[in-house]
């Protein structure tokens, strides 16, 4: 499968991605744990059917020391015993925040309350922002039919 256009080589797309990448860097540097950031990116990418981002973030997580077992269980996190309560709360927000169109009312108050038990205000702001950004990346890659499988950790700097 080939991408519909060379998005990564397009000047206009490059300008857009520069801003998305800058926003993502703010989140990487935030106090929201990187492990949680990668789990959230993976789960949103799975839900959105973004093979490119799923490939990228599972490989980045592995390179950062995440286990294959945990990565294999992200899609079924509710039944898996390998995630902390904080990770579960973030994954729940990730699912609800990604499926806004499917979930009348968006993120329910009880899901938000569970997340607020584990994260401070800055971390919650980072979590919301992270979901917005990964969903934007997912949409770009899904619409463009960006192929998955060739990513290597660090290839985008």
Automatic annotation (TrEMBL):
A matching Pfam family: CMD
A GO molecular-function descriptor: peroxiredoxin activity
Annotated transmembrane regions: none
Domain annotation Carboxymuconolactone decarboxylase-like: ranges: 16-96
InterPro entries, per database record: AhpD-like, AhpD_core, CMD-like
Highest taxon, organism lineage: Bacteria
NCBIfam families xrefs: ahpD_dom (TIGR00778)
PANTHER family in UniProt: 4-CARBOXYMUCONOLACTONE DECARBOXYLASE FAMILY PROTEIN (AFU_ORTHOLOGUE AFUA_6G11590) (PTHR34846), BLL7811 PROTEIN (PTHR34846:SF7)
Protein's UniProt name: Alkyl hydroperoxide reductase AhpD
Organism: Streptomyces fructofermentans
